[in-house]
Amino acid sequence: MSTISTRKKILVVPLDWGLGHATRDIPLIHEILNAGCEVVIAAEGKHAALLQQEFPQITILPLPGYRIQYAQKGWFFGIKIIQQIPKIVKSIKYEQKWLQGVVKEHHIDAVISDNRFGLYHSQIPTVFISHQLLIKTPFGGIIEKCLQQLNYKYIRRYSACWIPDYAGSNNLSGILAHPKVLPPNTTYLGCLSRFVNRTGVQKQYDLLVLISGPEPQRSNLEKMVLEQVKSLPISALIVSGKPGTPEKQQITPHIQQINHLNANELNEAMLASGMVLSRSGYTTLMDLVKLNKKAILIPTPGQSEQEYLGKFLMEKGYFYNIPQDKFNLSDALLAAASFPFKSFEHEEDMEQYKPIVQNFVKSL
Protein backbone atom coordinates (compact mmCIF):
# COMPACT_ATOMS: atom_id res chain seq x y z
CA MET A 1 0.00 0.00 0.00
CA SER A 2 1.31 3.43 -0.97
CA THR A 3 2.30 5.88 1.74
CA ILE A 4 2.67 9.63 1.61
CA SER A 5 6.46 9.39 1.62
CA THR A 6 6.68 6.96 -1.32
CA ARG A 7 3.84 8.15 -3.55
CA LYS A 8 4.93 9.60 -6.87
CA LYS A 9 3.61 13.06 -7.66
CA ILE A 10 2.44 13.76 -11.21
CA LEU A 11 1.61 17.21 -12.57
CA VAL A 12 -1.25 17.32 -15.11
CA VAL A 13 -1.77 20.46 -17.19
CA PRO A 14 -4.54 20.87 -19.82
CA LEU A 15 -4.56 23.42 -22.62
CA ASP A 16 -7.08 26.24 -22.17
CA TRP A 17 -8.73 25.77 -25.59
CA GLY A 18 -12.39 25.17 -24.81
CA LEU A 19 -13.06 22.65 -22.03
CA GLY A 20 -12.20 19.53 -24.01
CA HIS A 21 -8.60 19.19 -22.89
CA ALA A 22 -9.61 19.46 -19.23
CA THR A 23 -12.47 16.98 -19.53
CA ARG A 24 -10.52 14.35 -21.47
CA ASP A 25 -7.82 14.47 -18.78
CA ILE A 26 -10.36 13.38 -16.14
CA PRO A 27 -10.10 9.61 -16.91
CA LEU A 28 -6.30 9.90 -16.98
CA ILE A 29 -6.30 11.58 -13.57
CA HIS A 30 -8.58 8.87 -12.16
CA GLU A 31 -6.24 6.18 -13.47
CA ILE A 32 -3.17 7.93 -12.02
CA LEU A 33 -4.89 8.13 -8.63
CA ASN A 34 -5.94 4.48 -8.89
CA ALA A 35 -2.29 3.61 -9.48
CA GLY A 36 -1.42 5.12 -6.08
CA CYS A 37 0.08 8.40 -7.22
CA GLU A 38 -0.60 11.93 -6.06
CA VAL A 39 -1.85 14.37 -8.70
CA VAL A 40 -1.26 18.10 -8.90
CA ILE A 41 -3.15 20.08 -11.55
CA ALA A 42 -2.21 23.43 -13.08
CA ALA A 43 -4.99 25.50 -14.65
CA GLU A 44 -6.95 28.73 -14.38
CA GLY A 45 -10.48 30.04 -14.85
CA LYS A 46 -13.24 27.69 -15.96
CA HIS A 47 -10.77 24.84 -16.51
CA ALA A 48 -9.66 25.05 -12.89
CA ALA A 49 -13.31 25.31 -11.77
CA LEU A 50 -14.30 22.19 -13.72
CA LEU A 51 -11.38 20.10 -12.45
CA GLN A 52 -11.80 21.33 -8.86
CA GLN A 53 -15.43 20.23 -9.03
CA GLU A 54 -14.42 16.77 -10.24
CA PHE A 55 -11.43 16.44 -7.87
CA PRO A 56 -12.04 18.60 -4.78
CA GLN A 57 -9.18 16.89 -2.91
CA ILE A 58 -6.52 17.75 -5.50
CA THR A 59 -4.26 20.80 -5.33
CA ILE A 60 -4.69 23.10 -8.33
CA LEU A 61 -1.84 25.47 -9.01
CA PRO A 62 -2.57 28.74 -10.85
CA LEU A 63 -0.98 28.79 -14.30
CA PRO A 64 -2.05 31.27 -16.99
CA GLY A 65 -3.29 29.67 -20.18
CA TYR A 66 -2.47 30.81 -23.70
CA ARG A 67 -5.63 32.92 -23.55
CA ILE A 68 -6.27 32.81 -27.28
CA GLN A 69 -8.71 35.39 -28.61
CA TYR A 70 -11.16 34.27 -31.28
CA ALA A 71 -12.73 36.00 -34.24
CA GLN A 72 -16.42 36.90 -34.42
CA LYS A 73 -16.52 35.81 -38.07
CA GLY A 74 -15.50 32.28 -38.95
CA TRP A 75 -13.54 33.23 -42.08
CA PHE A 76 -11.18 35.38 -39.95
CA PHE A 77 -10.51 32.59 -37.43
CA GLY A 78 -7.23 31.32 -38.91
CA ILE A 79 -5.77 34.78 -39.43
CA LYS A 80 -6.66 35.73 -35.86
CA ILE A 81 -4.82 32.67 -34.51
CA ILE A 82 -1.72 33.26 -36.63
CA GLN A 83 -1.56 36.87 -35.42
CA GLN A 84 -1.30 35.57 -31.88
CA ILE A 85 1.63 33.18 -32.46
CA PRO A 86 4.12 35.61 -30.80
CA LYS A 87 1.89 35.70 -27.71
CA ILE A 88 1.71 31.89 -27.68
CA VAL A 89 5.51 31.61 -27.93
CA LYS A 90 5.85 34.04 -25.02
CA SER A 91 3.45 31.89 -22.98
CA ILE A 92 5.46 28.76 -23.82
CA LYS A 93 8.65 30.40 -22.55
CA TYR A 94 6.86 31.47 -19.38
CA GLU A 95 5.47 28.01 -18.61
CA GLN A 96 8.90 26.45 -19.19
CA LYS A 97 10.43 28.77 -16.59
CA TRP A 98 7.42 28.22 -14.30
CA LEU A 99 7.84 24.44 -14.53
CA GLN A 100 11.46 24.53 -13.40
CA GLY A 101 10.43 26.20 -10.14
CA VAL A 102 7.32 24.05 -9.58
CA VAL A 103 9.22 20.77 -10.01
CA LYS A 104 11.62 21.79 -7.25
CA GLU A 105 9.04 23.34 -4.92
CA HIS A 106 6.43 20.58 -5.16
CA HIS A 107 8.80 17.64 -5.78
CA ILE A 108 7.13 16.66 -9.05
CA ASP A 109 8.14 13.23 -10.39
CA ALA A 110 6.53 13.46 -13.86
CA VAL A 111 4.47 15.79 -16.04
CA ILE A 112 1.54 15.08 -18.35
CA SER A 113 0.94 18.06 -20.62
CA ASP A 114 -2.24 18.06 -22.68
CA ASN A 115 -1.14 20.07 -25.69
CA ARG A 116 0.86 22.71 -23.77
CA PHE A 117 4.22 23.06 -25.45
CA GLY A 118 6.50 24.38 -22.70
CA LEU A 119 6.13 21.70 -20.01
CA TYR A 120 9.11 19.49 -20.87
CA HIS A 121 11.92 18.87 -18.37
CA SER A 122 15.41 17.43 -18.64
CA GLN A 123 15.40 15.54 -15.32
CA ILE A 124 11.94 13.94 -15.09
CA PRO A 125 9.64 12.10 -17.54
CA THR A 126 7.26 14.37 -19.44
CA VAL A 127 4.38 13.32 -21.70
CA PHE A 128 2.78 15.41 -24.43
CA ILE A 129 -0.85 14.56 -25.30
CA SER A 130 -2.30 15.57 -28.66
CA HIS A 131 -4.62 14.35 -31.39
CA GLN A 132 -3.31 17.07 -33.72
CA LEU A 133 0.09 16.07 -35.03
CA LEU A 134 -0.99 17.72 -38.26
CA ILE A 135 -2.54 21.08 -37.41
CA LYS A 136 -5.27 21.95 -39.90
CA THR A 137 -5.61 25.58 -41.05
CA PRO A 138 -7.81 27.38 -43.57
CA PHE A 139 -4.67 27.93 -45.68
CA GLY A 140 -3.52 24.31 -46.09
CA GLY A 141 -0.32 23.37 -47.95
CA ILE A 142 2.92 24.96 -46.87
CA ILE A 143 1.40 26.66 -43.80
CA GLU A 144 0.32 23.28 -42.40
CA LYS A 145 3.75 21.78 -43.16
CA CYS A 146 5.51 24.61 -41.32
CA LEU A 147 3.18 24.28 -38.34
CA GLN A 148 3.74 20.53 -38.24
CA GLN A 149 7.51 21.02 -38.18
CA LEU A 150 7.13 23.51 -35.32
CA ASN A 151 4.74 21.13 -33.54
CA TYR A 152 7.23 18.23 -33.81
CA LYS A 153 10.08 20.47 -32.65
CA TYR A 154 8.33 20.91 -29.31
CA ILE A 155 6.98 17.34 -29.07
CA ARG A 156 10.50 15.90 -29.44
CA ARG A 157 11.49 17.72 -26.24
CA TYR A 158 9.13 15.44 -24.31
CA SER A 159 9.87 11.89 -23.19
CA ALA A 160 6.77 10.54 -24.94
CA CYS A 161 3.76 11.50 -27.04
CA TRP A 162 0.33 10.04 -26.27
CA ILE A 163 -2.40 10.19 -28.91
CA PRO A 164 -6.05 9.80 -27.83
CA ASP A 165 -7.12 7.69 -30.81
CA TYR A 166 -6.55 4.28 -32.39
CA ALA A 167 -3.76 3.28 -34.74
CA GLY A 168 -4.68 2.12 -38.23
CA SER A 169 -7.49 3.12 -40.56
CA ASN A 170 -10.33 2.55 -38.08
CA ASN A 171 -9.89 5.79 -36.18
CA LEU A 172 -11.61 9.05 -35.15
CA SER A 173 -9.12 11.73 -36.15
CA GLY A 174 -8.07 10.85 -39.70
CA ILE A 175 -4.99 12.64 -40.99
CA LEU A 176 -4.74 14.79 -37.85
CA ALA A 177 -3.24 11.99 -35.74
CA HIS A 178 -2.13 9.65 -38.53
CA PRO A 179 0.47 11.54 -40.59
CA LYS A 180 3.08 9.72 -42.65
CA VAL A 181 5.77 10.32 -40.01
CA LEU A 182 5.08 10.14 -36.26
CA PRO A 183 7.12 11.79 -33.50
CA PRO A 184 9.40 9.43 -31.53
CA ASN A 185 8.04 7.47 -28.55
CA THR A 186 4.44 7.75 -29.75
CA THR A 187 1.65 5.65 -28.22
CA TYR A 188 -2.02 5.55 -29.21
CA LEU A 189 -4.23 5.68 -26.12
CA GLY A 190 -7.49 4.69 -27.76
CA CYS A 191 -10.69 6.54 -26.92
CA LEU A 192 -10.26 8.80 -23.89
CA SER A 193 -13.62 9.51 -22.27
CA ARG A 194 -14.69 10.08 -18.68
CA PHE A 195 -18.12 8.55 -19.35
CA VAL A 196 -19.50 5.05 -18.68
CA ASN A 197 -21.91 3.36 -21.06
CA ARG A 198 -24.74 1.11 -19.95
CA THR A 199 -27.97 -0.18 -21.41
CA GLY A 200 -31.57 0.16 -20.24
CA VAL A 201 -31.53 3.89 -19.45
CA GLN A 202 -34.98 5.40 -19.89
CA LYS A 203 -35.24 8.16 -22.48
CA GLN A 204 -35.94 11.61 -20.98
CA TYR A 205 -35.03 13.97 -23.82
CA ASP A 206 -35.58 13.90 -27.56
CA LEU A 207 -32.58 16.21 -27.89
CA LEU A 208 -29.57 17.07 -25.73
CA VAL A 209 -27.79 20.26 -26.85
CA LEU A 210 -24.19 20.69 -25.72
CA ILE A 211 -23.01 24.27 -26.21
CA SER A 212 -19.23 24.54 -25.92
CA GLY A 213 -16.10 26.12 -27.28
CA PRO A 214 -14.56 29.58 -27.35
CA GLU A 215 -16.41 32.87 -27.35
CA PRO A 216 -17.96 34.50 -29.25
CA GLN A 217 -18.99 31.40 -31.20
CA ARG A 218 -20.25 29.60 -28.09
CA SER A 219 -22.80 32.38 -27.51
CA ASN A 220 -23.64 32.57 -31.22
CA LEU A 221 -24.68 28.92 -31.31
CA GLU A 222 -26.53 29.19 -28.01
CA LYS A 223 -28.60 32.10 -29.34
CA MET A 224 -29.46 30.22 -32.55
CA VAL A 225 -30.57 27.10 -30.67
CA LEU A 226 -32.69 29.01 -28.14
CA GLU A 227 -34.45 30.96 -30.88
CA GLN A 228 -35.31 27.84 -32.88
CA VAL A 229 -36.00 25.15 -30.28
CA LYS A 230 -38.96 26.90 -28.60
CA SER A 231 -41.33 26.26 -31.50
CA LEU A 232 -40.50 22.56 -31.89
CA PRO A 233 -42.67 19.80 -30.38
CA ILE A 234 -39.76 18.07 -28.64
CA SER A 235 -38.33 17.62 -25.15
CA ALA A 236 -34.85 19.05 -24.86
CA LEU A 237 -32.08 19.79 -22.38
CA ILE A 238 -29.64 22.56 -23.29
CA VAL A 239 -26.28 22.58 -21.48
CA SER A 240 -24.61 25.95 -22.01
CA GLY A 241 -21.04 25.00 -21.14
CA LYS A 242 -20.40 27.56 -18.40
CA PRO A 243 -18.87 25.75 -15.38
CA GLY A 244 -18.88 27.51 -12.05
CA THR A 245 -22.36 28.95 -12.72
CA PRO A 246 -24.95 26.22 -12.06
CA GLU A 247 -28.06 28.31 -12.83
CA LYS A 248 -30.88 26.69 -14.75
CA GLN A 249 -34.18 27.83 -16.20
CA GLN A 250 -37.28 26.32 -17.78
CA ILE A 251 -37.56 27.67 -21.32
CA THR A 252 -40.86 25.88 -22.04
CA PRO A 253 -42.65 23.06 -20.18
CA HIS A 254 -40.54 20.54 -22.14
CA ILE A 255 -37.30 22.48 -22.63
CA GLN A 256 -34.79 23.18 -19.87
CA GLN A 257 -31.53 25.10 -19.99
CA ILE A 258 -28.70 24.64 -17.48
CA ASN A 259 -25.29 26.27 -17.44
CA HIS A 260 -23.25 23.22 -16.46
CA LEU A 261 -23.48 19.56 -15.48
CA ASN A 262 -20.74 17.62 -13.73
CA ALA A 263 -19.39 14.45 -15.31
CA ASN A 264 -21.89 12.06 -13.73
CA GLU A 265 -24.88 14.29 -14.51
CA LEU A 266 -23.78 14.81 -18.11
CA ASN A 267 -23.14 11.09 -18.50
CA GLU A 268 -26.73 10.39 -17.39
CA ALA A 269 -28.17 13.13 -19.61
CA MET A 270 -26.39 11.77 -22.69
CA LEU A 271 -27.57 8.22 -22.00
CA ALA A 272 -31.15 9.50 -21.55
CA SER A 273 -31.19 11.42 -24.87
CA GLY A 274 -32.38 10.24 -28.25
CA MET A 275 -30.13 12.64 -30.17
CA VAL A 276 -27.22 14.92 -29.27
CA LEU A 277 -26.40 18.24 -30.93
CA SER A 278 -22.88 19.52 -30.30
CA ARG A 279 -19.70 21.00 -31.68
CA SER A 280 -17.29 18.60 -33.35
CA GLY A 281 -14.67 19.15 -30.67
CA TYR A 282 -12.54 16.04 -30.39
CA THR A 283 -13.27 15.29 -26.74
CA THR A 284 -17.01 15.50 -27.38
CA LEU A 285 -16.59 13.08 -30.29
CA MET A 286 -14.81 10.57 -28.04
CA ASP A 287 -17.62 10.90 -25.47
CA LEU A 288 -20.26 10.29 -28.14
CA VAL A 289 -18.43 7.23 -29.44
CA LYS A 290 -17.95 5.83 -25.93
CA LEU A 291 -21.71 6.09 -25.31
CA ASN A 292 -22.63 5.03 -28.87
CA LYS A 293 -24.83 8.11 -29.35
CA LYS A 294 -26.27 9.53 -32.54
CA ALA A 295 -25.33 13.18 -32.99
CA ILE A 296 -25.68 16.28 -35.13
CA LEU A 297 -22.35 18.10 -35.35
CA ILE A 298 -21.97 21.85 -35.90
CA PRO A 299 -18.25 22.70 -36.20
CA THR A 300 -17.05 26.00 -34.75
CA PRO A 301 -16.94 28.33 -37.78
CA GLY A 302 -13.41 28.82 -39.09
CA GLN A 303 -11.90 26.18 -36.80
CA SER A 304 -10.35 23.96 -39.44
CA GLU A 305 -9.82 20.99 -37.13
CA GLN A 306 -13.52 20.80 -36.23
CA GLU A 307 -14.62 21.37 -39.82
CA TYR A 308 -12.33 18.55 -40.98
CA LEU A 309 -13.51 16.18 -38.24
CA GLY A 310 -17.19 16.90 -38.96
CA LYS A 311 -16.83 16.09 -42.65
CA PHE A 312 -14.50 13.12 -42.06
CA LEU A 313 -16.80 11.43 -39.54
CA MET A 314 -19.94 12.11 -41.58
CA GLU A 315 -18.29 10.40 -44.56
CA LYS A 316 -17.62 7.41 -42.30
CA GLY A 317 -21.28 7.45 -41.27
CA TYR A 318 -20.70 7.99 -37.55
CA PHE A 319 -22.34 11.44 -37.23
CA TYR A 320 -24.44 13.93 -39.19
CA ASN A 321 -22.56 17.18 -39.85
CA ILE A 322 -23.80 20.63 -40.89
CA PRO A 323 -22.05 24.05 -41.07
CA GLN A 324 -23.30 26.71 -38.67
CA ASP A 325 -24.18 29.14 -41.48
CA LYS A 326 -26.59 26.52 -42.91
CA PHE A 327 -27.96 25.37 -39.59
CA ASN A 328 -31.70 25.08 -39.10
CA LEU A 329 -32.66 22.94 -36.12
CA SER A 330 -35.92 21.61 -37.56
CA ASP A 331 -34.29 20.66 -40.87
CA ALA A 332 -31.27 19.14 -39.10
CA LEU A 333 -33.47 16.91 -36.94
CA LEU A 334 -35.38 15.70 -40.01
CA ALA A 335 -32.17 14.97 -41.90
CA ALA A 336 -30.61 13.18 -38.93
CA ALA A 337 -33.73 11.04 -38.50
CA SER A 338 -33.10 9.46 -41.91
CA PHE A 339 -29.27 9.43 -41.74
CA PRO A 340 -27.82 5.87 -41.76
CA PHE A 341 -25.76 6.15 -38.56
CA LYS A 342 -23.03 3.54 -38.02
CA SER A 343 -21.52 2.51 -34.69
CA PHE A 344 -17.80 2.98 -34.16
CA GLU A 345 -16.24 -0.51 -34.06
CA HIS A 346 -13.81 -0.20 -31.15
CA GLU A 347 -16.23 -0.79 -28.27
CA GLU A 348 -14.03 -3.53 -26.80
CA ASP A 349 -11.03 -1.18 -26.56
CA MET A 350 -12.57 1.77 -24.73
CA GLU A 351 -10.18 1.31 -21.81
CA GLN A 352 -7.01 0.92 -23.84
CA TYR A 353 -5.46 3.90 -22.05
CA LYS A 354 -5.51 2.25 -18.60
CA PRO A 355 -2.56 -0.16 -18.96
CA ILE A 356 -0.59 2.58 -20.71
CA VAL A 357 -1.02 4.88 -17.70
CA GLN A 358 -0.28 2.02 -15.28
CA ASN A 359 2.94 1.15 -17.09
CA PHE A 360 3.97 4.81 -17.11
CA VAL A 361 3.46 5.02 -13.34
CA LYS A 362 5.47 1.81 -12.78
CA SER A 363 8.36 3.29 -14.76
CA LEU A 364 8.73 6.29 -12.45
From TrEMBL:
Protein's UniProt keywords contain Transferase: yes
UniProt keyword annotation of Acetylation present: no
Signal peptide bounds: none
Keywords: Transferase
Domain Glycosyl transferase family 28 C-terminal: 263-346
Gene Ontology MF annotations: hexosyltransferase activity
UniProt-recorded name of the protein: Glycosyl transferase family 28
Provenance organism: Chitinophaga oryziterrae
